[in-house]
Amino acid sequence: MSAICHHTMSLDGFIAGPDDSMDWVFRYGTATSLAEETMEGIGAIVAGRRWYDLAVERWDGVDGIYGGNYEGKVFVLTHRPPPSAVNPRISFTSGGVQEAVSTAQDAAGEKDVGIFGASLSRQCLRAGLLDEIVIHLAPVLLGDGVRLFGGEGDRRIELDRVSVGEAERLTDLRFRVVKLRTVE
Amino acid sequence: MSAICHHTMSLDGFIAGPDDSMDWVFRYGTATSLAEETMEGIGAIVAGRRWYDLAVERWDGVDGIYGGNYEGKVFVLTHRPPPSAVNPRISFTSGGVQEAVSTAQDAAGEKDVGIFGASLSRQCLRAGLLDEIVIHLAPVLLGDGVRLFGGEGDRRIELDRVSVGEAERLTDLRFRVVKLRTVE
């Protein structure tokens, strides 16, 4: 099982436009074979608080994930959990990112863990917790918005391309994160 | 003939690393079929002053372009041209970006114009002068450096994917810029 960050990204590196807009994302199709394969492989999701707030505010919360086709649990990493439980499929966790991913891995069993949101994906990457990056590259330059990666003086991270595919208008890209081994 | 911006880009959108480093670019191979096709189609190049300074400082100036395989002219857009001529293949032009591209198009004849450098590519994109974007996507997250696109509140620009290809480690991507038509 792998921890996979899974996003549709513009050619200029944004996963959301200005004001977190996601209207553009549906213009290029969403049902690529890699998207379906990734979705079917995911047994638990870890998401950031910002992702959660937007999901509740703009979509149907966790019930809207993958167009309603995701039935697993969602672990929301936040230091300010809401006062009352909202949905039995959601757990709020205030530990570190490592603990959240580990808890999600237990819940996922043999399946993969999906990492949702730019900030959380970066945190997982920095902590060496991210195994794969799945990108549906959209044929658009958004110009501004929420970037998935980079720009904060992060260290260089090598990737191995696993697959490339052409969906209708999206380009499917799957990379494996090359992890540095610590020699004792 | 088209105006084409042609770059190797990391998955996080950088065409140069910190301190303009280009060491990474050769790690993933450079001789992709799209790179050769693009190179062979280019009859003139427009470059920014920053690109020029780096080319002279770190490579062999214009003689180092495309590993020495480019024999056309280079038009460097700058308001501070050097006091004396350096190479008969280089022209310094201080007019606008439109004038520079137009001059290069005349020099290119039936061939394409290559746009080199991040700042110039953005300027051409904003001015509606860019026809195609050729990217060799490198399997790396550089974390920091010089971004090709975005982040300055630019307007959204739609693209059409022309082709996708797998080179050894690079992913070749060719897009056509969808231009807005002004209705009179």
Question: Mind sketching the topology for me?
Answer:
Two copies of one chain form a homodimer.
Chain A: E1 3-10, E2 14-16, H1 33-41, E3 42-48, H2 49-58, E4 73-77, E5 90-93, H3 97-108, E6 112-116, H4 118-126, E7 132-138, E8 140-141, E9 146-147, E10 157-166, E11 171-177
Parallel strand pairs in A: 1-6, 1-7, 3-4, 3-6, 4-5
Antiparallel strand pairs in A: 2-9, 7-11, 10-11
What does this structure look like?
The structure is a homodimer of 184-residue chains. Chain A is of the alpha/beta class and 184 residues long. The first copy, chain A, has one domain (3-177): Dihydrofolate Reductase, subunit A. Chain A is 22% helix and 33% strand. The first copy, chain A, is built from 4 helices and 11 strands; from the N terminus they run ββαβαββαβαβββββ. Chain A has helices spanning 33-41, 49-58, 97-108, 118-126, and strands spanning 3-10, 14-16, 42-48, 73-77, 90-93, 112-116, 132-138, 140-141, 146-147, 157-166, 171-177. In chain A, the strands form 2 sheets. Chain A has an 8-stranded mixed sheet with strand order 5-4-3-6-1-7-11-10, with helices on both faces. In chain A, strands 2-9 form a two-stranded antiparallel ribbon. In chain A, strand 10 and strand 11 (171-177) form a beta hairpin. Chain A is globular, with a radius of gyration of 16 Å. At the A-B interface, strand 7, strand 8, strand 10 and strand 11 of A face strand 7, strand 8, strand 10 and strand 11 of B.
